Amino acid sequence: MSMVSRTALTLLAGLIAVPFTPVNRTATNNAPEQQAAPAAYATTAKEAYLAPEALTYIRPGFNIKIQAVTNFGPGQKPVVELYFTDDLGGPLDRLGLVTPGTISTRYVPALWNPTTRRYTDYIGYNADPAKNANPSRDNTGTWQELEIGHYKYTFFNALPATMDPTKPHTLAAMGVRNTTDIVGKPYYAVPKYLDFVPSTNAAATTFNAMTVARCNQCHDPLALHGGNYRDIKTCVLCHNPNNMTGNISATESRVQFDGQIFFHALHMGKNELVVPELTYPQDVRFCTTCHDPAAAGGASWYTYPSIAACGSCHDDVNFTTGANHTAGPAADGTCATCHKPEGSADWDAGIKNAHVVPIQSKQLKGYTAQILSVANAGPGKKIAVTFQLKSGDGSFVDPGVYKDTTKGSISIKLGGPTTDYTNAGMAAAGQPFSEAAQTATYNATNGQAVYTFTNAIPAAAKGSYVVSIDTRRAYTLNPAPKNGPATINEGAPNQPFYFAVTGTTVVPRRTSVALSKCNVCHARLDNLFSHGGQRIETQHCAICHNPNATDIGRRPTDGSANPGESIEFARMIHRIHTGAELTQDYSIYGFGGAAANFNEVTYPGDRRNCLACHVNAAAYSLPLPNSNVPVVTDRDYYSPRGSTTAACTGCHDSRDVLAHAYINTAYFPNNPTVPADACGTCHATGADAGVDKVHAR
User: Fold this and answer.
1) pLDDT (tens digit, 9 = 90+) per residue, 22-56?
2) What's the farthest any 2 CA atoms get from each other in the chain?
3) pLDDT by residue (tens digit) across 523-556?
């Protein structure tokens, strides 16, 4: 295949292909094989924007291969034979003289106990307890160069004289190639592990309870201690029970860094001496968010309970005195006597049952709400909406049941136009018409209900509009969680229904984000932000969270907290997720006049990864559609602002950036009150400061 054809095919796949020719060499026995194909980089990678000659020079990537280990015995200094290669298998010079970027590595040798499922790291405390050091790594040994990219590393530390070489061990090798000055980023090698029994060199089974893929769902990527530790298995090598304690303040008592305690407490926000103000984005009872069921040892969280793991979250339990523990005092190793993997009912002593998230309880019946049709649509007309409510077993639900408000509620929202919701001529502060629909005419035979709006579509309306149902029903849990709630709202996922007000073509609202992407980190977004369990779908959110929408209607009536804050969807989501990195206050007044501040939100991933939320690159590439409406931002430096400016300054909210945006905003004579931002001139796809390029990683 010619290079032209190969490049064309790669571009069709949405990638930019950049050919480069690595330095050739002949592979020695067992050496990594150099690949012949050119590299292809997605436009989200910095390499995609480098010239071919730059890639030829840089030879991107860094990979480690452990070829052999010798001297792994009592009192000895292990010798590790390694290969270092780039992403095409070409050899890399450790010193950065022949190939660019110096390489530094580190090694952790550890004993694996299959009974306790914990490691004992041989470097640090366990090498010499008298030093009272934390478990650590070896990285100051000596090197022997066998050829470029092929080395032997001899440990600085000797293994403990008391080590038992007949037991399972793990040797971890990890490292970084420093190319930051050249590429704008270093290359971290995927850690390599040798799981073996040193006395026989037989393969061994060691830690397999979790996968880093689960960590990276939110952390994107996991990169701790300066970026050097990027796999949960490297974490647990050191974060074990052997003297792994410390804190960030010399005036505070030392806390446990043992992984079973530390990791749980960290995500519970109960380890503020170490990582203050941590934001965990979902209900902590979603245990499988971290404990990957697909992992070989993924069941360990409910098959191997321990005081360390359980007590880290349930820190009001004193297992010694029995305080807050139904069975009284309990010794470690006896937990499984009462806490079986799975019990017989929600929130009994079974471990899986005890961690059921109420919204996922099998006691709930399942609930759907679907709009079937809209009649009498047109400017100035009152639409009739036909809809159907069902339980999970297919039985119909009469909306009239909600005339008793203790049983739940139902309302239908009417908004538009779908090009960009403004809800002009409807409710205050950019809100849609929202009408309670429990009085709808109900046909019990087919389960269909018809509700006719009392408000008419505005006479000036054009294009397509939307109707969408808010509904929830109250359910009493029996049994219920010990600490509540006793009742829960079961909401029906919103299913927006688009219809033409003028013309015959129905234009749905553009799709920029997807609920499924939210739930990668949030598990069930509706468990956190659903206005009482009834607003679940992101396409439904945009009806109210539109360019004209602010929280002014929820702020104190005396005007003491005015002006209102924008709650436009793109701007709001960007600001919430930027949280602690914002330079301005971001507080929203909600139901009951309660103010919620988001300046302490800590985003666990890399916000340059726009595809973590957006459905595709086109959804955020500039320029945005001209039909997008300017956004009201009364609490910011100026208002209104173009939709691009509003979205970008949701994250980049400094005064300097706002000044830059302001002077690049025009007010044309034929439309002097509408801001036209010029962002696409410099930040369009392919430009030197394109959004794709500046967010590439």
Assistant:
1) 334 444 566 777 665 556 889 999 999 999 899 88
2) 88
3) 999 888 779 889 999 999 999 999 999 999 999 9
Amino acid letter, 324:
N
For residues 126 and 425, what is the distance between their CA atoms, to the nearest angstrom? 73
Question: In Å, how far are 301, 360, 483, 513, 576 from 289, measured between CA atoms?
Answer: 12, 14, 22, 21, 22
Q: Is the dihedral of CA 268, 272, 273, 274 positive or negative?
A: positive
Ramachandran quadrant class, 322 (left: phi over 0; alpha: psi -120 to 50; beta: rest): left
* Spatial separation of the C-alpha atoms in residues 175 and 689, rounded to whole Å: 32
Number of residues that make up the chain: 697
Residue 610 is which amino acid?
Answer: C
Between CA 125 and CA 117 the distance in angstroms is: 19
Write out the two tokens for 641. Answer: 């602002």
Q: Of 598, 576, 472, which Cα lies nearest the Cα of 531? A: 472
Torsion 239-169-233-146 (CA) sign: positive
Q: Which amino acid, 226?
A: G
DSSP E strands: which ranges in 181-233?
A: 187-188, 192-197, 202-203
Are the CB atoms for 618 and 681 separated by under 8 Å?
no
Q: What is the pLDDT of residue 133?
A: 80
Residue with the two structure tokens 């309660």: 594
Report which of 463, 492, 432, 456 is spatially closest to residue 384, judged by C-alpha positions: 456
Q: Identity (one letter) of the amino acid at 92?
A: L
Instruction: Note the pLDDT tens digit of each residue in 199-245.
Output: 999 999 999 999 999 999 999 999 999 899 999 999 999 999 887 87
> pLDDT tens across 439-471, in order?
999 999 999 999 999 999 999 999 999 999 999
Global pTM value: 0.90
Q: How open is the CA angle 177-183-188, to the nearest 5 degrees?
A: 30
